[in-house]
Amino acid sequence: MNFKHTKGSNVLGYAAHDITDKFGRLLLAKGTLLTPSVIEKLELRGISFEILPAQLKKHSIVSGNHLLQGHDPRFRVPAKLDPKFQRLDMEVVGPASKYLNKFLKEIQEDPFLSNNIKVLAQGRRVTYSHSINVALLSISIAKKLKFDEAALRDLTLGALFHDIGKILLPKSVLNEEEEISAGGEMIFQQHPVLGGELLAGDMLPPSIYLVAQQHHEKYAGDGYPQGLAGEEIHRNTVIVSVANDFDKLTTATTQREVLLPDEALVHILQYKEIDYHPLVVDEFSKLFI
Question: What is the pairing mode between strands 62-63 and 66-67?
Fold first, then answer.
């Protein structure tokens, strides 16, 4: 797999600290590679930052408590999976977990993709953990659907970054996500558009950025932001939508009672051809043992 967007010769240095916007939202994590295009964007936005020269990187850069090179836990699937995965076929989930581990290790080499992982991990921990779970579930479904390597790569990136738009939302809106006010709901529903634009802006293909943009669309056309229906929704998105909702339904929050995996499966089956693509639901249900 080739994740190189930037040649090493184009790296001018590394962020000496976390870089935030005027609202305090994290844009680039400490240690992120800084290229001429990234620096130009920061300067156009009037954002101040310090650069650590590239030649010092191997000796000096530490992000939080984690060395950027080596065993960074942000780029690994947890050794102990969420208990919900115990209900799924480990003959599929096991290889999917190994694939995701290898995938995360390789995208450390890409400045833009690795920074997105760091930003997710340093933001709301629940969003980062959810993204890892959704990616693992999506890979498992895709393996049942016999995706080839190139298609699986794009699906995995789309799943990992499906909620990337949330990093641009006010923390107040994210904190009330489960019991959101009317005004907050309008802002919250912008995160698919923001995420799609962020990924598309780095010249990622539609098979990746449309997952972020469309993951709240529903099969019957009742979703947002565009009200797309059926085959108008990208095939990667319809997989991630099932994985996204299953993980949310089976993850405890203070505002919502958590469902058991089998209860969540019943919910998804009930909304087959309403919220979810029927083929994806059929293959997802086969993961249960």
Answer: antiparallel
